[in-house]
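Minutes, project check-in
Item: structure for the 406-residue chain
Input as provided by the requester:
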Amino acid sequence: MKRFQLVLLLIIVANVILAQTKDQYSIKLQGIYGNILPHDKYVKLLIDQPVKGAELSIEFQTMGEKPWHQFQGFPIIGLGAVWLNLGNPEKLGFAYAAYPYISLPIFRSRHFRLNIKGGMGASFLTKTYYNTNKDTLGNLLPWLTGTNAAIGSKLNIYFSGGAAMEIRLSKALSITADYTWNHVSNGSAVAPNSGINMLNSFVGLKYFPNYKKFAFLESKKIADFPRHFTCEIIAAAGFRQLYYKDNLTFPTGSFAVAVFRPVSNFLRVGLGTDAFYDGAYDGHTTAFKRTYLKTNEFKNKIRMGVSLQNELLLGRISAGFHFGVYLYNPLKNLEPVEIDPKTNEMIEPLLNKPIIYPYNIDEEDGWLYTRAAFKYALNRHYFISLGLKTHLQKAEFIEWGLGYKF
């Protein structure tokens, strides 16, 4: 599945890049300096030194070859290769990543540019929970010993998002500076999966090999994007692990129906209904004593909700974030549980929670779910989709889907 993700991304990136003006490309080399965010107990003790590294990328300036280029303000399409020293070679090792990205302009003048940059790709880690030196105590209490309980897989997803600045020194050379949030995780496909979140600063140079063929961006009069409603149906599947000590993998799935309407030439907003299946909640004996499950009941594996869906329009691609509220969620009254100190058994919570209620994300999933969504149109009606379903910063599973729109 992860190899399929890499092939899919490469096909899409090649399709997008080949549509650009080949003369208007640049090569960018940047140094990286930043920090890992201590977002939970598994990561906190792994942080030692700052993150250091480098990124080499190739960027293509869109020139209006497609209508969406102009609608998005003539963005830059890039492909980056990243190397990161995560600041703890013994426990965290090194990260290597390759990812496509888009850089959307906020402000642009003759000598200065400020963009919003976002992208997603694949990463490889040299250290995981399974190849980190662990003693007996580290197996039982990894957050006390510093054992790498943040990541359980070598191959992971890589996210990048932030601001990108460029100061042009000449026709051929620019100074660049980025400040981005970078994330490495596997979407809970392999436990443990606390993930690694970083805030990184980038500084470097950008070179334009064909600077003599430089062309100014020119807006053309083109028709606005049609403002009609569309309906989308997506069926998706995947897999996940609930807890690294269980060593078990469970099937997941989702079914979504949404109605969208463009609110501008570059953004559409939709309302959707979502149904989720998570096979991890089957009542199996687990060391992850957070949810009170004693039996294998189908109802505990199903959750349903409604979501607000915001997506950018990028030609064949649409991408964005969805925010949902569970309307049906049997698990909300099964967590969190208490542990009897005498018997070490779970005590059933006596709760009757409303749809919206206060909660601690470290102890339960809560009423809010989110999704990072990516879709690629195969033709007028069919598209493939990739989603990461989360509860705030905690990933639940990756959705690999096929959709139909009309």
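Outcome recorded: Residues 1-7 have pLDDT under 50 and may be disordered.
No further action items on this chain.
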